[in-house]
Design a protein that fits this description.
mainly alpha, Endonuclease Iii, domain 2, Endonuclease III, domain 1, 2 domains, globular
Length: 207
């Protein structure tokens, strides 16, 4: 763990820290913009499952308010035209559209972030624990880990975990706990740590 903590501390002293601070501000601001903007971000996180993050960002920008209004058939056709690998996920987005005007209220009803994640993973088709954590981080929640293959690869490389054969809920929470210990050493929330770890593994600071 010491080596990984040291690598993050080096990044904290350089220009990457400014990018991380900017992203954290953007996440906080998005969380204040109301249910429809939250729903569009929910659609973005639905896009990202097993798909390239940068391409998902470009598709989100291209679709825009179409997430709020297009029929399933038209949304699927647009996603396909934009080069999205799983255009049939339009059906997931149409199903979750029932929450586009109430999402903010629903999320505020939970006592803690883990309860919100449980609700999302249970009620939003296409979102598991990773995507639910991703969505919550992107709208300003700070204490959940986004455990994708980049993060797993990094932790395995540093000998902090064994590579999971399958990502069960139990295994996810165990890895999240390992990440919490790193975050504690660094004095930062998991949301911020994720951005630094992603940069270590990919050289980028994305949402």
């Amino acid at each position: 763990m010491d080596k990984l903590v040291s690598q993050v501390r080096v990044l904290q002293k350089g220009p990457v820290s400014k990018l991380v601070e900017q992203r954290m501000r953007e996440f906080n601001e998005l969380g204040k913009k109301g249910s429809q903007e939250l729903y569009k971000e929910l659609c973005f996180c639905t896009l990202t499952a097993n798909f390239d993050a940068e391409k998902s960002i470009a598709i989100q920008e291209a679709v825009g308010c179409g997430f709020l209004s297009l029929s399933e058939k038209k949304l699927e056709a647009l996603l396909r035209k934009l080069g999205y690998r799983y255009p049939n996920r339009a059906a997931y987005m149409l199903e979750s559209r029932q929450f586009k005007d109430s999402l903010e209220k629903i999320l505020k009803s939970f006592e803690d972030e883990r309860q919100a994640r449980e609700w999302l993973a249970k009620n939003i088709k296409g979102l598991g624990f990773k995507e639910s954590s991703h969505f919550l981080r992107n709208i300003g929640f700070k204490s959940l880990a986004i455990i994708d293959f980049h993060i797993v690869d990094l932790l395995v490389k540093h000998g902090l975990i064994e590579r999971p054969k399958t990502m069960t809920k139990k295994r996810y929470l165990e890895i999240e706990q390992a990440l919490s210990k790193i975050a504690g050493r660094l004095g930062m929330p998991l949301a911020e740590l994720d951005l630094y770890l992603w940069h270590l593994e990919t050289g980028k600071v994305l949402k």
